[in-house]
Amino acid sequence: MSFYASRSGQQARELDPWDGILLVDKPAGVTSHDVVDRIRRTFLIRKVGHGGTLDPMATGLLIMLLGRGTRLSNAVMGQDKTYEGTMHLGITTDSEDVDGAVTGTADFTGVTRAALEAEMKKWLGDIQQIPPMVSAIKKDGVPLYKLARKGQEIVREPRWLHIFEFTLLDFAPPQASFRLRCSKGTYVRTLCADIGRALGCGAHLAKLRRTQSGNFNIADALTLPTLLALKPDDILPHIIPAHEVRDLTTRAP
Fold it and tell me: What is the pTM of this model?
């Protein structure tokens, strides 16, 4: 049966090779929804979703849910995440990342590597984090970022998170590169902003790349241009079947 016939056939197949997940390396400058839309339109797949949003400026692992694989959304999104990123000291923005408008500058030259590492260690373990206004979290059905665009700010309830690892990889002021392993729902840009605030100079997230989500690794992902250039039959070997996904999401990384 051809690809197109299998997607449009009235009789549901018991085992469909398109039901599962696909690992994509998202480029910067596109939203997670953009990736979903491009895959859906290019390959005429009716049901496509993703297992955890990446901001437009971020790159890296985006788990695409295909067909019946969309039913695994909660299991996939619930996995711990690993990131590599860069925070920029001395500049704050309204979105807490490089895409936002600058809201303040301060002298960062007094921040030492030891001081930064000491502050980062304070965030290990269970923490509470207040989500940023520029986020997709909804208030009365309206995403907070839409309220932020109107100049509105509302009280956000703090959320409990867990930081497993927060390692400084390179310190070249005003930039500091790090690796972070954290529970789902962690706003890395907010973490950088909070650290900058504690250090007295402010900071924002300059770069971010997701390298792992649970047992799924960026090394196994296809870049978006590579994926969109493939023929449907060439994609099938890259799809992880739904039954294997269930096993991988319950197994310790």
Answer: 0.88
